[in-house]
Amino acid sequence: RKMALPALDVEEETEDDFYQLEAGNSRHDRVKRDNKRAQMGFFSLLYHDIKLAIDRQKNERNEFKLFLKTIKSIQGELGSSTATLFIFVRYLLMINILSAVLWV
């Protein structure tokens, strides 16, 4: 028994497709037009990138894993205000280590 293969849908280019490409409606032009970053000037783009970096830093605050388990156990025993103090001390320690590395 022979099985019939389904017909493949082949899109043919029409005259309208040709005129759309002529008019600048290609995918590249649409992406460039819809891309907000491509339309920004230098300083507005710089401001936008800095704002995004700050927002990412706020969202990834617990990304810094040094002493994380210890601080969590302190928070469980003594409360969140004491844990906040130790988080601040952790950042001071990292700034101190960073400055020592840069000093050498």
Key descriptive features of the protein:
mainly alpha, 104 residues, single chain, elongated
Description:
The protein is mainly α. 70% of the residues lie in helices and 0% in strands. The protein has 6 helices and no strands. The model has no long low-confidence stretch (mean pLDDT 77).
Low-confidence stretches: none
Structural class: mainly alpha
* Average pLDDT, all residues: 77
Number of strands: 0
Strand content: under 5%
Helix fraction bin: over 70%
The DSSP helix count reads 6
State Rg.
28 Å
Summarize the structure.
The chain is an all-alpha fold and 104 residues long.
List the helices and strands and how they pair.
Blueprint: H1 15-22, H2 27-34, H3 36-39, H4 42-59, H5 68-78, H6 80-103
